[in-house]
Amino acid sequence: MSSTDSTSKRPNILFAIADDASHMSAYGHKFVHTPNFDRVARSGVLFANAFTTNPKCAPSRASILAGMHTWQMEEAGNHFGIFPAKFAVFPDMLEQAGYFVGYTGKGWGPGDYERGGFTRNPAGPEYNRRTLEPPANTGINRRDYAANFADFLAERPQGQPFYFWYGGHEPHRKYVEGEGMRAGKTLDQAELPTYLPDDPIVKSDLLDYAYEIEWFDRQLGFMLNELEKIGELDNTIVVVTSDNGMPFPRVKGQMYEQDFHLPLAICWKNSAEGGRVVDDLVSFTDYAPTFLEAAGVPAHPQMVGRSLLSLLKSGQSGRVEADRDRVFMGKERHDVGTEGDVSYPVRCIRTEQYLYVRNFKPELWPAGNPETGYPNVDGSPTKTLILEQHDQGNDHYYNLSFGKRPLEELFDIVRDPECVDNLANKAEFAALKESLWGELRAKLEVTRDPRLLGGGDAFDKYEYVGKAPHSWAKYLAGLGKSE
Question: What order of strands is seen across the sheet that includes strand 261-262?
Fold first, then answer.
């Protein structure tokens, strides 16, 4: 095939999304080794400022699929909710435009898409037949992602462009304690954030997490090699990212910088010059219009994001487009466990230097109530340690991860990327705080956020379709009471 023919046909798309991963070695992290993510970054663009819209699996993935902010998506804005089929999703649009579509591993979820009117997972037709025997004494999932991808490629009609969603279950918990160290990692390699205790328990937990990221990356490598073998890699847009931050206290499900600032590398050898780092602020709402533009399909009117193709094709590094200098995030109900199982609603704006956080109901517990076990923080050795320290009267790490929060928080991300120094009550930042709240409020108004327009309590009434082992209702039932 000639070079002209190769570059003129519609590109394939491989979208690889890890489950709860904050770290890749291309960003300088030494305790995790991700050569295949790094390969994509070297071949294309490493994004220094990519942000999910909502730091929890189901709402983050819904936002990716529909190209919308989660506060615009009714039930799909909650975790373990229903995904209404009235919201268009880009895999369906690509399929209607002639793409061969599929997914392996974790697609959209957790939640119920069938009751929302979908006949299949919103990520596409499922390819999960193949399984493998995971490494002993690990929490690695049994799905053979690479073999399922090979099955998908084998079924693809000759010459048809494809879209494939590789949803690794890793590094989602549960881990088998000691996975990382059994694989040869040592405690001194762990990168410890200041908001977690300096303790061997935490370091080992971080190494387990890193080991599972490496498993996700290894399967990605198999897929890249398969594409190279069949001559399709150069005309495939490869996107590698995660849905939300790592499953540790103060990260996954919370609303700070490291909860939603995520890895992103994209390569497209036929059309995007490699070896670049782009600093523009980009949102997960941008994925859907990117894929649709690449396929020659107009973005759906509901989509609020902007295609990334202009950045990919620019050939530039650093700040490329001056107006990509703001992103917006929000959350509603994640895992139930507040009084009445209501939401802990938050909205944020992130600029190049500052993060402004608006906690609409600061009287509530952001991680869930103490009596229900703080269920919006995944169970882990690290969580247990912090709660044990709390029982012993050491509340420093407890307050950072589980304590109540003020109405407003403001952080200088350049100076304080871990968001431990709240500037909101300092007089010298009063004007900046008001300016950012005004800008955030305007964004929420134009995007018709129910939380701002007086209908936000609807999020509390949407059904939680999970088992809800820590719900407020079950807590009361255990006491022999009802609401």
Answer: 261-262, 50-51, 282-283
